[in-house]
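look at this stuff:

>
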Amino acid sequence: MNSKKSLYTQKTLLLKLRNQYDDDAWQRFIEYYKNYIYVVVKNLGVDKSDLDDVVQAILIKLWSKLPEFEYQPNKGSFRSWLCTVIRFHVYNCFRDNNKYSPLDDEGSIQAEIDSISEREWMLHISQLAWKAITPNFTPQVTNVYIRLSQGDTADHIASDLNISRGSVYVYKERVQKALRREVRRLDNELG
């Protein structure tokens, strides 16, 4: 995602999507949600060979349904509705192909879908947040954060980069603060 583009609020994007031929809005929707849809579908047990086709079919279904979708946050989140569309489409794919579906046991699968949805959503918006904040930091600062995240020690990083140990922790804190703020914003805007 280009960080110079402004992020539509969810409400604004959903209003723009009422016009199915607003290419900019659909491109934004795909940027924000396609990878998320992909990992949820994958975690629901769709064969790897079918993943791209199923995701594309879900996007087409959303394209046809979103113009009439009425966003009412007091009744539920957009993400919940999106997961319902995904779940029904995947279930129908299994049924139509006479394959066993892990979605057959409705009681246990709803909890699993909720768990998958939440976990993958947090990963998804974390990745979007990382893309959005990295242009605001020097490569050295992001490198320090990545290395710490991967288990490298502050002493080793400080020695390698010829900076103080204190600078390592300051860089880490700056990136974490920006990342947390961006994750909260994205979750509010897109979730």
Observations:
- Helices lie at 10-16, 23-43, 51-65, 78-96, 106-133, 139-149, 154-161, 165-190.
- Residues 1-8 have pLDDT under 50 and may be disordered.
- The chain has eight helices and no strands.
- Residues 1-126 form a domain with the Rna Polymerase Sigma Factor; Chain: A fold (CATH 1.10.1740.10).
